Amino acid sequence: MGFYIRKSLGKVGPVRFNLSKSGIGMSTGVRGARIGVGPRGAYLAGGRGGLYHRQYLKTGSKRSSASRQVGTVEDPQPVQLEPAKTEPTSTTPKPGGYRIPITLGVISLLLLSGSSWPIGLILLAIAIWFGWRQRRKIAWCASHETLLSKLTATPDDALLADVRTSLSSSPFKLSQWQARHEQAYRDVFSDALSGGVDSDERRWLDALAGVLQIRDTKTIHVEALRALLWQLMADGEVTENEETFAEQVIGEAGLSREDLSEELAVMDEFVRARKVRQFGLPVVEAGISLQKGEVCHHATRGAFLDKKVLRSYTRDGQKHKEEGLVVDKEGDIYITSKRILIVADGMSGIPHQKVLDIEINQDEKLIEIIKDGRQKPVYIKVPDAVYSGMLIEMLSDAAG
C-alpha cells in the first residue's frame, strides 16, 4: 500500500512538498497524474476509474541512508540530526555599490574643465569621501559575514571576541544586521540541537546571544525545535530514543511542552501507534452493535466528507468549476477489526480490504482514502488524524 503522510511544508505553483514515511520529497503534476522525487527515488503517481497507484521509476533500496543515528536500547546514543541551515544571502544587508561616488566624480570632472572648477573640487572631494566610505562598508560586510559563517555549536571564545570587535567597528546601525544575526544564532542553535545541548553549549549560546544582541531567543528556540520535531517524524514513526531525545532537547532549550503543543500532540499520536505495533491493537468499548467476531480498536468524533463542485462559471469563453470538501456525515467514528464506521442517522462504513491507499493531511486533520470500486476518494476528518490513519493502515494491510 502506498501509504504516506503529508505535512504542508510549502508549495510553489503546482509543486507539493510531502512529509512521508520515507522522508521529505516533492512532486508536481496535474489532476490524475503526478511525477515526483523522494528519498526512494522518482515516482509516477496517478489514477483513474478507481485505480490509484504510485510506481517508482527506479529500483533500488527502499530507504536512503539516514543522516541521523539512533542508539539501541542496550547502548542509547543521542539522536544525531543533520542541522538545516538557511542561506545567509536573504538576511545579509547589501552594502551597495559605487554608483553615487562615480556619478559625483564624473560631474566634478566636467565642472573642473570650466569656470565652475571650485564647485568641481568640492564635488571631487565628496566623491572621494563617498568612495572611501563605501569601500569600507563593503570590506566590513565581507569580513563580518565570514566571521558569522564560522560560528558553530562548538564554543570558540576567540571567534566570539572577533565578532565583538567587528561589531564595535561597524559602519552600519546594528538594527540593519539584526535579521542576519538572528539567522546566525538560529543556525548555531540548530547545530547544537542536532546532538543535544550540553552545559558548555548552553553557556556558549547565551554568550553568543549577548554579543549579537539577540533579545528574543525563545522565539528562535521554538522555531528550531518545531523543525527538529517534524524532522524526527519525517519517516512516519517515533522510536523510544527519539521520544526521549525530544523531551531532553526541549528541556535543554528552556522550553515547555506548551510551547510546542501542536508538534508534541502529533508526536504523541506516533508514539501511540508505535505502542500498538509493540503491544497489539487496543480493544475499546464501542457502545454500538457490531458484527459477530468484530471488535472496536478506536473511537473518536469526526465526519465523512465528499468533494463536490461548489461553483461553476464561465470566463473568457472557458468553463470553470470550483471544488471543495463538504460534510456528508458527521458523528461518532469507530475503527474496528473489520471496517471504518460512522454512526450518524444510521451506520455506514468502509471495509478495510477495500482500502487501496491512504494519505494523511496533518494540517487539515484529514484522512484521504482511495477505496476499491470508487472513483473519488473518501475523506475522513478526525482530531487525531495521524493515529487514526496509522491504525487504518495496519488493519488494511492485515486485511489485504
In brief, what are we looking at here?
With 400 residues, the chain is α+β, with helices and mostly antiparallel strands. It has helices at 99-112, 117-150, 157-168, 178-193, 199-211, 217-232, 240-252, 261-279, 385-399, and strands at residues 4-6, 11-12, 15-20, 23-30, 33-38, 41-48, 51-56, 296-315, 318-336, 339-343, 347-351, 355-361, 366-371, 378-381. The chain folds into three domains: 4-65, no CATH class; 88-276, no CATH class; 296-399, Pleckstrin-homology domain (PH domain)/Phosphotyrosine-binding domain (PTB) (PH-domain like, Roll).
Structure report:
By secondary structure, this protein is of the alpha+beta class. The chain folds into 3 domains: 4-65, no CATH class; 88-276, no CATH class; 296-399, PH-domain like, CATH 2.30.29.30. The chain has 9 helices and 14 strands. Strands 1-12-13-14-8-9-10-11 form an 8-stranded mixed sheet, covered by helices on one side. A hairpin with a 3-residue loop joins strand 10 and strand 11.
Tags for this model:
400 residues, alpha+beta, PH-domain like, six-stranded antiparallel sheet, 14 strands, 26% strand
State the assembly state of the protein chains.
single chain
| Distance separating the two termini | 9 Å
Based on secondary structure, the structural category is: alpha+beta
Shape: elongated
Rg for CA atoms: 29 Å
Percent of residues in beta strands?
25-35%
Question: What is the ordering of alpha helices and beta strands?
Answer: EEEEEEEHHHHHHHHEEEEEEEH
Q: What average pLDDT do the residues reach?
A: 78
Uncertain parts = 7-44, 46-80, 83-89
